[in-house]
Amino acid sequence: MSFSLCCARCEGPLRLAGDGYVCDRCAHRITLRHGVLWVSTAEPPPLLPLAHAAREGDWVEAANARLEARGLGARDLMSRLSAVRTERAGDWHFLVDSGMDGTALVMGDRWGTHMAGLSRAAREVVLFEQDPEAAEFLRARVDQESLENVRAIVCGGSAADFPFAPGQFSLVALLGSWVRAESRNGRPDALEEILQAAFRLLAKGGTFVLGISNRWRFPLAWRNSDRARLAGTVPSIRARLSRSGFQDLRFYLSQPDIDDIQALVSLDSKVALRYFHLVYRHPRARWKRVLLGAAINAGLIAVAAPSYVAIAKKP
């Protein structure tokens, strides 16, 4: 492995000890179980149902069963299953002009759709997942798909649990959900903390990729999920990225969603938006497409973009 682990509490060196790692400086222990590094202070939970089904059978069958149990409609179910299986969610890596020859850190990729696409482009991939069940599910998918360059899967509660030395990743991507866990100082884990952590972990010239959904994007999906997506308008995210030190900011509208990217349209290109507007005004378009078309026509796309990908560089 070309990346190194350090203590998430004091950034001290770690050494192998039994079934995990121990910090020589503060004695903090990181347990390694079923191929997942458990960074939080709490003990790893028993193997949870989704992960157990994936390990005992097939990860695709386990994902299908979990989604079907949610009681989704046939159309939504087909869309979700396609998003889980496909590698189109990793198509954004073609927009990254550097970082594929180093180590990439992927966060919030619950089903591994971005991981699968990126593992075929980057030299090494490291995963950080907040959900224990999802972390062990991802371990099963990695093993069954023989993704040999996925080097580590880490499970922690917040950005305070990153056991990574600064400046060692050429690419950091946060796409999907992020649970706003309580940080060590008692305050909610804000987006600024995530951006600052990503900036610290990136090497000079590295790339940060952020998947964002606006608040009104999922009026029904909130009922089916206990995980919150990061939300914000293009102007607000642009300001936050700039304050964190990132440069060369680029924004792309992702369709149909950041979980299953089939098309990326530059939010800075008026020509592309005009073409996209014509497509979205088709009489058979769904209501959200009609609404998005109206937002494009009114010049409000930076505020009303339902989901988009932000790409930035560390100078």
Write out key terms for the chains shown:
twelve-stranded mixed beta sheet; 10 helices; alpha/beta; 31% helix; 315 residues; single chain; Rossmann fold
List the total number of helices: 10
What is the terminal-to-terminal distance? 25 Å
Q: How many individual domains?
A: 1
Reading side by side through the largest sheet, how are the strands ordered? Answer: 1-2-3-4-7-6-5-8-9-12-10-11
The helix fraction, in percent, is 25-40%
Uncertain stretches: 215-226
Please compute the radius of gyration using only Cα atoms: 19 Å
User: Looking at the chains present, what oligomeric state does this protein adopt?
Assistant: single chain
Instruction: Write the CATH fold name.
Output: Rossmann fold
- Tell me the number of strands: 12
What does this structure look like?
Helix 1 (49-56) runs antiparallel to helix 2, helix 1 (49-56) runs parallel beside helix 5 and helix 2 (59-68) packs antiparallel against helix 3 (74-85). It is globular and about 60 Å long. 31% of the residues lie in helices and 24% in strands. The protein has helices at residues 49-56, 59-68, 74-85, 113-119, 132-145, 191-201, 234-243, 270-280, 287-297, 301-304; strands spanning 14-17, 20-23, 29-33, 36-38, 103-107, 124-129, 150-155, 169-174, 202-213, 247-257, 260-266, 307-313. The chain has a 12-stranded mixed β-sheet with strand order 1-2-3-4-7-6-5-8-9-12-10-11. By secondary structure, the chain is α/β, with parallel strands linked by helices. It has a single domain, classed as Rossmann fold. The chain starts with 13 loop residues before the first strand and ends with a strand.
